[in-house]
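pipeline/complex-builder :: batch 7 item 3
reading input block
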Amino acid sequence: MMMLSCRIYRFLLVCLLCSPLVSWAQSVEVIKIDRLEKEIQEHKGILIVNFWATWCAPCVKELPDLYRIHQDFEAKGVKLLLVSLDFADEQPKALALLKKKGIALATFLLDETDYNTWIDRIEPRWQGAIPMTMIYKDGKKTAFIPGPVSYEALASHIQNQLNP
Amino acid sequence: MRKYLLTLLLLSFGVLTWAQGYKPGDKAIDFKLKNIDGQYVSLADFKEAKGFIVVFTCNHCPFSKMYEDRIIALDKKYKPLGYPVVAINPNDPKKQPEDSFDKMIERAKEKGFTFPYLFDETQEIARTYGATNTPHVFVLKKEGKDLIVSYIGAIDDSPREASKASKKYVEQAVDALLSGKEVQVKQAKAIGCTIKWKEM
């Protein structure tokens, strides 16, 4: 009896350890602009910040490519930060979409609807159309990519940053 | 392979080298674009107008849809005062079938558009003006033969709820122009859908 419960316990423990971390890693945290700026400034290494929304077809289409970049370059200290511009009450919708796409990342939803007050703080050249991707190295801008982006373009930019 | 990557890189970053389009104070060009009734429309056709509220918009974009009623209201309020709305769809229907010319006709009928809804098929006007989003407004003021860009950007600061808008950028700009004053806020940014550019 004792043996059995021990086995069950061990089995459960193994199950727990093997369960995919995906379900834990997926999150959409609702934040304000100050928090986003802080994240950008304090990140050591290469940071890719992509602005997207569930209602934006080209954004949703490029998410898998962005995630592949994250997977392929994570070991080299490259981080992908997805920033949803959905309305705050649509956070569940954004989370559901990331889950559906299998994107296991901690992400943000920027709850700032007075757009004119913060767009320039991110990038003065940006007119506000999404998708838009910024790349930073040690908190400094290295690229501003308005519109859709490809895996290849991101990969070569990252390679250039890693091996200047 | 390297060459291939370089080409891709150039293609992807080519976006950055596009002309920036107009800034407030620039002279805007007129155009001749097909309206939903099949007739071609130019700003020069509006002999009585003092200026224009040119709106780059489309059928599919949720932000454009949120603003449709407000665009109709702008036309209703300002057309009699000499500032009619002229709406332009710059999107490539190959990329977004929702934005085809036929769907424009449908959408205008559904919503009861009171203004021209033009198709910028070559996208030349959107590029020249520097439109990047839908919706994206350019308020133009007639000065003799010239069209002076007097305001660029968002309609107001509350896409979702018209009633909560505290900064009505377009209205403030047109009101200032009508009373012969300087436009206070000449540019205001907003989130919107990227214009669906044709593949080069």
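note: The longest helix of chain B spans residues 62-78.
queue -> next item
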